[in-house]
Amino acid sequence: MSALLQLNQVTIRFGGLTAVSEVSGTVGQGELVGLIGPNGAGKTTVFNLVTGVYQPTSGTISFAGESLGRLRPFEITRRGIARTFQNIRLFPSLSVFDNVRVAFHLHLKHDAVHAVTRGPKFFGEETTLRERTRELLSIFNLERVQDEPARSLPYGDQRRLEIVRALATGPRLLLLDEPAAGMNPAEKVDLMRLIQFIQGKFKLAILLVEHDMKVVMGVCQRIHVLEYGRKIAEGTPAEIRSNPAVIGAYLGKDS
Amino acid sequence: MLPRSQIWLLAVLGAAAVMSAVSGRLNPYWLDVAMGVGINIILAVSLNLINGFTGQFSLGHAGFMAVGAYTSAMVTTVLGSRLGLSPVLLRWGLFPVSLVAGGLLAGLAGLAVGAPSLRLKGDYLAIVTLGFGEIIKVILQNLNAVGGARGLSGIPSYTNLFWTFTVAAVTVYVVWGLLNSTYGRGFLAVADDEVAAEAMGLNTTRYKINAFVVGSFFAGAAGGLYAHLKGYISPTGFDFNKSIEIVVMVILGGMGRHLGVIVAAILLTVVQEPLRKLGDWRMILYALLLIGLMLTRPQGLFVWPLKRRNA
Fold first, then answer.
1. Domain limits at A73?
2. Mutate which of A85, A116, A131 to test chain B, going by most B C-beta atoms within 10 A?
3. A16 lies in a domain?
4. pLDDT-based confidence at B306, cuts 50/70/90?
5. Is A104 within a domain?
6. Among B6, B198, B210, whose Cβ lies nearest the Cβ of A118?
């Protein structure tokens, strides 16, 4: 079985700084993979490379057998990769409902012209989309706040809404950038359940960047470890936990 | 059965036709003011699509208006005399065609300015659009075919209440219609967070260009109405001050608000009349108004607490 996402010797330099160096790795169909490493190891940079925010200096990234080189972020999203951000980036002035609705726009058949002519087809499609938006919101128990502006939600709900919005684009791969950041232990347990629920319900692969080891070890099937932009280990949670290079990276090496 | 928005549109068009039919009995001075109101509504609402809803700060709206004004005036003066049409056909046939032509050329100018410069954000975009407005003015001043600095005179006065408010109603309808759709929510998303919008699969460049082109189109049509209302246009009439005037309407009404901006356009146009004696001092008053507004009500004067954006 070929991998869904494949990184092949990916390197990116910013001036003299090599942020990510010759990183290779895969995420399989429907797999839940963790990406960990100390601060500044290049985890978010990998996300930005996969989603097209940055272009690799060398190396290739392919998704479902197709190269993502030179594609813009929105084109990559349309191919089935959605993401959340380390610092939540919702549309703050839009309502919760509209935050999700706008992400459904990928599946629209109508465009600006139909929005102006407002024929029966336009209304039909809008009604279907509203229903799907409401459905998705209710799965995550957000329909009770659907008319509130997104900025007024409590922190945990904002995190959840960001995931819901990403799901609305209909991804095959979901990238979660530190979803547990700023959460208390109880919220983290909920989040772990949520991540597993999403993976099963929407049949998608998840790549998870996370600092919280309990979360990562608890949900991931496989883990990649970065340090100083290089991949130092890959394996199951149990293997990673006992890997001397990983322990060295986090706790410092024995001399 | 038509959607409610289109019934509204038709109702306004009907009202405009009736008003136009009896306009002979109205005070010509106030008739003039009323048409000025209509033109400013078009300008403010179309700029609101760019500056308010899509969050791109343009200071070049008067430039697009100028493109439309000159194009439309050239169509009616040059073509009008050669075609040998009856006066009725000129007013009801050639004139609307000239407005569309003015709009299209202005839209094209919007595309030409927008496509390369919309990578810029905030202040930088404002400076580029400001520069564009000045370039248009200088080109027109040096183009002898359209009268150069002397301006273009002898433009037939085809503009009436009907055409003014028809274009105004269509502008409001198109901008409102665009925004009130799943597609249109993308404009607001781009204004809120471009990076996130792009990550949700929105082609942000396309959205910004669309806003720019549609906004410029209607600015151009407004220019055509203006030219055929005044009978005389000159490059200085479309300078930076005019752009600022439109920006003030949008800010006063509340950026990204439909009704507020229309109210602001009406108010500012009517208020200008008694202020006419002040001449250029008017701009100082505008500046003070803007500073006062930013300090006390940055969200705009006519913003009501009630807002349900997914209605």
1. 3-80+171-251
2. A116
3. yes
4. very low
5. no
6. B6
Q: ipTM for the complex?
A: 0.90
What tokens were used for B52? Answer: 């308010």
Domain membership flag for residue A61 = yes
In chain A, residues with a C-beta closer than 8 Å to the C-beta of B200 are 74, 77, 82, 102-103, 105-106, 165-166, 168-169
For a pLDDT cut of 90, what percent of chain B falls above it? Answer: 61
Domain total of chain A:
1
Q: What is the mean pLDDT of each run of 10 residues along chain A (255 residues)?
A: 87 92 93 91 93 94 92 94 94 95 85 84 90 93 93 91 95 94 89 92 93 90 93 92 87 68
Query: Helix, strand or coil for residue A59?
Result: strand
Report pLDDT digits (tens) over B130-167. Answer: 999 999 999 999 999 888 989 999 999 999 999 999 99
CATH number, domain containing residue A242 = 3.40.50.300
Q: Does B210 sit within 8 Å of A74, measured CB to CB?
A: no
Radius of gyration of chain A from Cα atoms? 19
Judged by CB atoms closer than 8 Å, whether chains meet at A91 and B184 is answered as: no
Q: What is the pLDDT of residues B258-288, one digit of tens each?
A: 899 999 999 989 988 888 788 778 778 877 8
Distance CA(B306)–CA(B300), nearest Å, equals 14
Question: Across the strands, what pairs with B82?
Answer: none
| Residue from B173, B185, B200 to probe the interface with A (highest A Cβ count within 10 Å) | B200
Contact list, B199 vs chain A (CB under 8 Å) = 51, 73-74, 77, 82-83, 85, 89
Q: Does B4 touch chain A (CB under 8 A)?
A: no
Counting Cβ atoms within 10 Å, is residue A252 exposed (0-12), middle (13-18) or buried (19+)? exposed
Which residues between 158 and 177 in chain B have a beta carbon less than 8 angstroms from any beta carbon of chain A? 173-174, 177
Contact of A228 with A41, CB cutoff 8 Å: yes
CA–CA distances in Å: residue A103 to residues A166, A168, B174, B301: 7, 6, 23, 32
pLDDT at B308 over 80: no
Residues of B in contact with A107 (CB under 8 A): none
